[in-house]
Amino acid sequence: MIKKIRTIVAAVVFVLITLLFLDFTGTLHHWLGWLAKIQFLPAVMALNVAVVVALVALTLIFGRIYCSVICPLGILQDLLARLRRKKNKYSYSGEVRWLRYPMLLVFVIAAVVGVGSLFQLLAPYSAFGRIATMILQPLWMLGNNVLGTIAERADSYAFYTVDVWMKSLPVFIIALVTLVVLFILAWRGGRTYCNTICPVGTILSFLARFSFLKIRFDEKKCKNCSLCSKNCKAACIDYKTHTVDYSRCVVCGNCIDSCKFGALKYVGSLGNPRISGNANKSGDSIDTSKRSFLLASAMLAGGAMAQKKEKLMDGGLAELEDKVTPSRQTPLTPPGSLSFAHFAQHCTGCQLCVSECPNNVLRPSSDFLHLMLPEMSYERGYCRPECTRCSEVCPAGAINHVDKPEKSSIQIGHAVWIKKNCVVLTDQVECGNCARHCPSGAIEMVSMDENDEESPMIPAINEAACIGCGACEYVCPSRPFSAIYVEGHEVHRRI
Questions:
Q1: Residue 153: CB partners within 8 Å, gap ≥ 6?
Q2: Among the residues of 438-470, which ranges form H helices?
Q3: Angle at 442 between CA 436 and CA 443, to 5 degrees
């Protein structure tokens, strides 16, 4: 029964959270956004005490069911492992401490000192987000475009085509490598990634030792048939000694379901004293377990402290083709992120904001120092003042929620005019695209020479009124480099 319940709940959670990343219409996050907010690391980074306490309590009662039914990367491992049809494909193996605990130490250090790319690389929810955003969503959108083409021929608006493009080649490669590694490890050993690399799994393992409900052996009924060990995806059951390594057990229920003699039960610590298996092979004593619990608490505290788009026309001067991304001294971060430092400190790199952005403004950074950190760029759209979706979906507190009126008063950067690139001077034509499309009225066309009535009209920028939305940069017809671009602010301002 426990296996069936876990499988059903895990399947529902996985489908819904995957749809949350795949959705490009902006409709599902209103109902499914909470699934991102109950993930362990985003909750810690957002200082969501209620969620963290709830997950800790859940682990102390039921064991590591978070890894089985809530974590999408954990569920993905189970799906990949099922591709191997072989029965009784696992066997008991000892805890790989030489890899497990150093990986956790590296993760904690990266979180504390602010090495965001390393932190995001190891974070399980972020890893799943990269896979979903960079690999699954483009495939989903391509399927949508096929339906959109069919619907268009049938004079139906049930589906519409959308642009599918590579947001970041380096991050795509990282996502693909992560998926391949997951597949190999899951194919060979089930939950190997969970119990050797994943820092969340290691943190929860300290707590799982103290869980009230555990898988326990009834030694009188056990026939040492080894089926429990052969079906344990966490490789944590030693049938010879009737012990379970609770630090690695994810309470999948496979062992109970496979036991033909009813020798395994999921019971509380106050149950039948004849049911054994409280010790694990690692041989941890009571004192060691207490130290582990204190270590887990310290890590939790340390982690908390570390803390269809509307196409625009360009005035008939040129088609809006892809342009070269300008070299910004300070990266642009979304309204609500407060500052670049705040954004980099709290962002887990899950890419949910990237997948949800309807204007194709957000994409993962390809810069080595800020790899995988979402950044804004305006080659394919601009940050519309009426859009607040990224602030609505961020689960980690990296982007605080802002409403539409508030967003129009946040200055994330300011426009900069590059005289040598402007078509008014290079091609001797009239333009004014930047001024016409500026939603804040921060740009106006003025005479280059006040004393000459026939002098060309060039843009004059009021930096105090500019909000950095990028509409001017997006519609500028200058190629390959825009004649006007937005320079980011280290700290966002109010206007």
A1: none
A2: none
A3: 50
307 or 246, which is more confident: 246
Q: Among the listed ranges 118-132, 272-286, 427-441, which one has the minimum average pLDDT value?
A: 272-286
- Side chain identity at 50, as an amino acid letter? A
Question: Is residue 196 classed as helix, strand or coil in its secondary structure?
Answer: helix
Sign (positive or negative) of CA dihedral 332, 338, 343, 348: negative
pLDDT of residue 321: 56
Using the predicted structure, report yes or no on whether residue 387 has a pLDDT greater than 90: yes
The DSSP call for residue 490 is E
Q: Which residue has the tokens 């759209």?
A: 381
Residues belonging to the chain: 495
Cβ(313)–Cβ(358) below 8 Å:
no
The CATH topology of domain 340-494 is Alpha-Beta Plaits (3.30.70)
Percent of the chain with pLDDT over 70: 89
- Cα separation values, 355 from 390, 439, 467, Å: 9, 25, 23
Q: What is the pLDDT of residue 46?
A: 93
Burial of 347 (0-12, 13-18, 19+ CB in 10 A): buried
**Distances from the Cα of 43 to the Cα of 17, 262, 474, angstroms:** 16, 39, 35
* 19 φ, ψ (degrees, to nearest 5): -60, -30
At residue 271, the pLDDT reads 45
Task: Indicate the pairing of strand 237-238 with strand 443-447.
Answer: unpaired
Q: Report the pLDDT value the prediction gives residue 284, as an integer from 0 to 100.
A: 42
Higher pLDDT, 115 or 8: 8
Average pLDDT, the chain: 88
Report helix, strand or coil for 238: strand
DSSP conformation class of 332:
B
Domain with CATH 3.30.70.20 in the chain: 340-494
Q: What are phi and psi of 243, to 5 degrees?
A: -125, 155
Residue with tokens 């997951």: 182
Question: 80 pLDDT exceeds 70?
Answer: yes
Structure tokens at 114: 């602010």
What does the block give as tokens for 20?
């949350």
